[in-house]
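Field log, afternoon session.

UNIT: design team B
ACTIVITY: writing a sequence onto a fixed backbone
BACKBONE:
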């Protein structure tokens, strides 16, 4: 993913540098595009964090179930009401 984002950044940068615009326009355009790329990168990171949180929650839930079943079996309270 990093290589993909780097490739996009390089391609955009080269395209802007060779486009017929004034220096100020080019700088403004580069700044805008850099901000867009930064926003996209933040979104990707946020999505990754959410996937990790979700995975950890699932693992914790599974571990709690295993612990509960194990303690029930150890105390002989399986299926007791």
């Amino acid at each position: 993913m990093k290589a993909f984002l780097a490739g996009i950044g390089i391609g955009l940068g080269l395209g802007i540098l060779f486009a017929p615009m004034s220096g100020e326009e080019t700088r403004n355009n580069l700044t805008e595009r850099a901000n867009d790329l930064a926003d996209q990168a933040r979104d990707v990171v946020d999505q990754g964090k959410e996937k990790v949180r979700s995975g950890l929650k699932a693992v914790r839930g599974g571990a709690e179930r295993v612990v509960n079943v194990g303690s029930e079996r150890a105390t002989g309270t399986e299926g007791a009401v």
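LOG NOTE: The longest helix spans residues 23-75.
NEXT ACTIVITY: expression trials, pending approval
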